Amino acid sequence: xxxxxxxxxxxKITLKAADGKLIExxxxxxxxxxxxxSFFVDNDNATNDMVVxxxxxxxxxxxxVEEVKAFDALxxxxxxxxxxxxxxxxxxxxxxxxxxxxxxxxxxKLIKDNTVEYDGEFFEIKNDYAPEEEDAExxxxxxxxxxxxxKD
Length: 152
Prior knowledge:
CATH class of the largest domain: Alpha Beta
Helix content: 40-55%
Strand content: 5-15%
Largest sheet: 3 strands, mixed
Number of helices: 8
Number of strands: 3
Shape: elongated
CATH architecture of the largest domain: 2-Layer Sandwich
């Protein structure tokens, strides 16, 4: 049986700089690099255990992308739903696309697989249906929406 730490480890991709040095990075981090991402898109037979050659990089890439990922996670840590929603409103008003995309992605991860009721509370959406209407009409028509959801 696999240990719990091995189950939570993310897939790694190995990058090789022109100087021959190798660096392993998490798949999600590597896919932020368009050159690496296009390698996998362009090569149907490519697998994560392949080494991606970075011919125009004279030395192993520094860790700034990984540091940014860690900062992003730390930035969102302990933020309430209200704070997250407020940051989205501000980013939208200021038209800061990258920040808005980041916050919307974080929100999507938070609400994924939750109940309609939880998501309604998260976004402060008032349910306009009487319980009888919702149960009889809505749940019957859109039953697939309610399957396999977490209560929180």
